[in-house]
Amino acid sequence: MAIKIDNQLTAQKLVPKIERLFDLSAEKILNLEKTWKPENGTPIFTARGRYTTRGWTEWTQGFQYGSALLQFDATGDQRFLEIGRRNTVERMAAHVSHIGVHDHGFNNVSTYGNLLRLMREKKIPFNEHENNFYELALKVSGAVQAARWTTLADGTGFIHSFNGAHSLFVDTIRSCRSLAVAHQLGQVLMGEQDARISLLQRLVEHALNTARYSIYYGTARDAYDVRGRTTHEAIFNTASGVFRGPNSQQGYSPFSTWTRGLAWAICGFAEQLEFLESVNRLGFDEVSETATRLLDPLLNAKLRTARPAARYEIMLVEAATATADFYLGHSCADGVPMWDTGAPNLHRLPSNYPNKAADPFNKFEPVDSSAAAIAAQGLIRLGNHINTHSDEKMGDRYRQAGLTIARTLFGKPYLSTDPKHQGLILHSVYHRPNGWDYLAPGQRVPNGESSMWGDYHARELALLLLREVRGESELTFFSCARRD
Q: Long-range CB contacts (< 8 A, 24+ apart) of 79-86?
């Protein structure tokens, strides 16, 4: 069971597919902007090709308006800048101060962050008041997310999910971009008696605890410990701060791997490695020393004497490479995974199914293209980082895998060419255990539908590669917070 990596593929060779994707993307964004009624809530996933909503949390609105901003970045078409900017100003304020979710990085960095980045990159004119508005939104958003904090028995903690203080979601590692941006903009969280709480400290602790409790390393933590396997949710006793066990909300079981959660981990840890490069290491040593002491059992004696930032980087690399290797070993040949590696009906598929391209129309278990879109971006970022810092052969493997997945997603049967279908990338899955995904007549499993996060991350993946080919600066979430 493994992806067949094309080692000859380049970003340049994908340009025709990328340009086609953005041509189709323009139609989809305009269609949704024309037909969606904001009073109905936030578009989340499609049913019969039309975006619909499903009350859980409003975590995808930033992807809706952020997609328009990515479209503008790729094409220069002012219509999409106007859609993204106007809707961010008019509709995103509630997300900035939302105390009930862990999704600030998804909603606010995708909107306010993209707008500030475009201004910093001089792709839109500088306006002091507009600049200050975006900065303030990002500062507040990062502090609000950091306040959603659970303290553990060892004194560290994590940002808990909307499920409550006991719940650590693996998804949040990518949403932590909100804390990183706010920190870079100079923000702190003010607590009782005016205590100044470092957002960077909380980011580091959350990332380390995600690496410790959400990712497996083949160390016999339990009977199902396989290196790179990922649990969607880690559960803690909030009275004692002690870890109790793995759980899953959207995966099949606590002891199988929900592949979108796996993809969030790959991408989130890879982005934190990129962010680490932009942080002053002296300041980083100060905030990370306490947290990185917890890594001692996971590091050899030589590495224990390294500076905290170096130890932190080692843990990020281990978490990122473990999850990346597991993904590559458990996707189908074209790089698209089944929705969960332990899904109950996988045994009913042909025994050689992993050696072939994923079949979205099989009768037993759905694939998840959104997991592929997220993972592809993470693999490319991880490959670029490792290429620069250590093992070029390993880095090339991850990067080429990401390009291979991008090629798959940017063509049939995943790229949506039907103008009546509002989605961009087909065969995404939302919540299989709850049965929320639309089943078309005659189909036994969900297929043919799209999700707002899958579409956004496909656009972000395409823009990442397009900017590389154009010779532009690398697309990073923290570019918006850089001081020139």
A: 79/30, 80/26, 80/29, 81/118, 81/124, 83/29, 83/33, 84/111, 84/114, 84/115, 85/115
